[in-house]
Amino acid sequence: MTTPRSIVLRTAGTNCEAETADALRLAGSPTDVLHLNQLIREPQRLEEVEILVIAGGFSYGDDLSAGRVWAAELRHALGAALSAHAAKGGLLLGVCNGFQVLVETGMLRTPAETKTQSSAAGEFSLPPAEEREIALYGNASNTYECRWVTLQSQASACPWLVEGELWPCPVAHAEGRFVVRDKAVLERLRAAGQIALRYTNADGGPTGYPGCPNGSVEEIAGICDPSGRILGLMPHPERNLYPWSHPQWTRRGARDEGEGLLFYRRMVEVAAAGIQSPGGVAAQSSAS
Does pTM top 0.85 for this prediction? Predict the structure, then answer.
């Protein structure tokens, strides 16, 4: 296996790039933090890495809509580079504001919308801007939500998530309510294995508010593209890297690390092995 390299992308208003870079480095991936303008000037930098992460925060103050301005910049200035990164099998993660950006760019659309994308052929291109079928709206509580929640991995195309695993991590957002245009869109997401993470209670059972902090349809916390190589989620696994990261860490028993570090280590292992099928490296890691 080669050592995969990573880029964490930031822009005005981003505030999670440092801990995201720490997560990737602790997981074994040499990581550079780049401002958007730097990557626009040097788009070839994407050719040198296997992982791109769009960090969380409040890009451009969430003016117009959360992630919309940043997404427009990416589509306009880096659309070809992002398409090439995905086509070569690169991984792309968007956390919180990064998830909002991925939704706004169209990179997480359902199969019916991504007719130019074929994971089997390894081909990818950004879909044209058109009427959206998925979106991240304002929280149902009409307020900013900041608390620890529990996520559960679903049976999905994402290769570093194992069905049934629980991920405690914090949320911090005002526009995280995942919505779909209609039931047909939800069924396409489900059939394509795109529903990657759901909010649950601490034991993995059904939850409501505040366990699901935003009112997302079917408590969906994160989705991936049909290939599984592009993942977006609202909560922040990079804020749970150490045993003492969790506010109740003294009650959780002996732990060598926070669960969020395993999330990033799995992603790095998948990038190193070049595995895009679900359950590969992730299943091996959980069994070891």
Answer: yes
